[in-house]
Design brief:
By secondary structure, the chain is an alpha/beta fold. 24% of the residues lie in helices and 33% in strands. It has a four-stranded mixed β-sheet with strand order 1-4-3-2. Residues 8-135 form the VOC domain. InterPro entries: Glyas_Bleomycin-R_OHBP_Dase, Glyas_Fos-R_dOase_dom, GlyoxalaseI/FosfomycinResist, VOC_core.
Length: 136
């Protein structure tokens, strides 16, 4: 019987206000190496193992396909988007401190959760929620 191979998860793309600033922020705040920032500043990538973290301008997501008009997200969507990014760190306290020192907005300081994982939350420069957690 032939075995079905699952597809590789290749990219997570963040839609941001300023690609170059977001690439620099994630590199500084979370320690990722920059793989690529194109000359147009409309695409950037960070090295993150098997899955690439990529950035592109927010208006590309919000452009109406028929008219080309830029749509503004509703206020409720700006409160908390439909996606949360999670990064695992061996030292969550140090990762949280570094992220905040580099411009992340503190949401909740790291604490051990009932399931045993240490978790803290910040927001990036575009308001995206980033969870910093331990491996277990």
């Amino acid at each position: 019987m032939a075995r079905h191979l699952s597809p590789a998860f290749a990219y997570t793309i963040f839609y941001v206000k300023d690609v170059a600033k977001s690439v620099a922020f994630y590199s500084d705040a979370f320690g990722y190496n920059v793989r690529r920032l194109d000359d147009s500043r409309r695409w950037g990538e960070l090295e993150s193992g098997q899955t690439t973290i990529a950035f592109t301008p927010v208006h590309q997501r919000e452009t109406d396909e028929r008219t080309g008009a830029v749509r503004t997200p509703a206020a409720a969507e700006r409160e908390r988007g439909p996606v949360e990014v999670c990064f695992d760190f061996p030292d969550v306290d140090a990762a949280y401190k570094r992220a905040v020192e580099k411009g992340a907005v503190p949401v909740s300081a790291p604490e051990v959760k009932e399931w045993g994982q240490k978790v803290g939350y910040v927001r990036d420069i575009d308001g995206i929620v980033v969870r910093l957690g331990s491996h277990s």
